[in-house]
Amino acid sequence: MGRLALVTGGTRGIGAAISLRLKRAGYRVVANYAGNDTAAEAFREQHDIPVLKFDVSDFAACQEAINQVNRDLGHIEILVNNAGITRDSTLHKMSEEAWHNVINTNLNSCFNLSRLVIEQMREHNFGRIINISSINGQAGQFGQANYAAAKAGMVGFAKALAQENASKGITVNVIAPGYIATEMVRAVPEKILEKIIAKIPAGRLGEADEVARCVEFLVADESGFITGSTLSVNGGQYMC
Ligand code: CAA
Fold first, then answer.
1. Which residues are catalytic?
2. Is 238 a member of any domain?
3. With a cut of 70, which residues of the chain have pLDDT below it?
């Protein structure tokens, strides 16, 4: 029986590509989603991947969901913290709500879910946690003080967790995608997006599956010596 993976935001965009790749590689996958029931239902039907609706920013909701997965499918061995939102605005125009929504969904969710699965991973001496960060957490981005702070926070969080859990067979790594052809990026005003693409040495947006294959690599049993690292997938746009 394949190892059990939970992918947050796993029915659309990069998350959907991750869910599909892991399933194809023989893992058992549960895909979380927050709001879009129609898309989630279509995803479940088309790919035969169970979907689970809960708000990753709500600790109690996460606890209930993890309990349900544990009851129905067993202990979670792989967690992909992928769920994320943008509420772009320059800081001088940013509302408190736009700040907190992004920090809660993108960063506090990593605490919520990692906290809830870490004990079962430690108990079984195996675990893989992948945080899907962003180039904009590494380089900053005009109009994204909230998003950049959350995405940079995911890196520090992963490095601390990697140290705490390395002796228990648990690895914690970060993938930092650049601009990938998803709904989130397509929502950037066209003129701004054109300027961004002009700065990508590869000359194009990335594909969601180009991120997903990195997840498949990092969660493999054979990748047990890689922990606390950040893998950039950005077409050469930012190197660090
Ligand atoms: N760098 C420098 N200056 C910029 C700029 C940039 N990237 N973007 C805009 N400006 C300038 C504008 O040219 C403008 O200057 P003038 O007044 O001299 O014309 C000024 O800043 C104000 O710009 P806007 O009119 O765009 O300001 P706004 O308040 O209407 O919009 C914004 C601000 C909503 C943040 C808008 O700039 C925007 O949408 N930017 C894109 C942000 C972005 O890249 N988001 C990524 C989303 S995808 C994602 O996050 C996935 C991932 O991980 C990669």
1. 147
2. no
3. none
Q: What percent of the chain has pLDDT over 90?
A: 98
Residue 109 burial by CB count (10 A; 0-12/13-18/19+): exposed, middle or buried?
Answer: buried
Ligand 1 pocket check: which of 87, 142, 207 to mutate, most ligand atoms within 8 Å of Cβ? Answer: 142
Q: How far apart are CA 1 and CA 28, in angstroms?
A: 8
| Domain hosting residue 155, numbered range | 4-178+207-233
Per residue in 161-211, pLDDT (tens digit) is 999 999 999 999 999 999 999 999 999 999 999 999 999 999 999 999 999
Residue 186: the pLDDT is 92
In a domain, 239, yes or no: no
- Residue of minimum CA distance from atom 5 in ligand 1: 142
- DSSP code for 53: E
44 neighbors 23 (Cβ within 8 angstroms): no
Structure tokens at 198: 């002009």
Domain count, the chain: 1
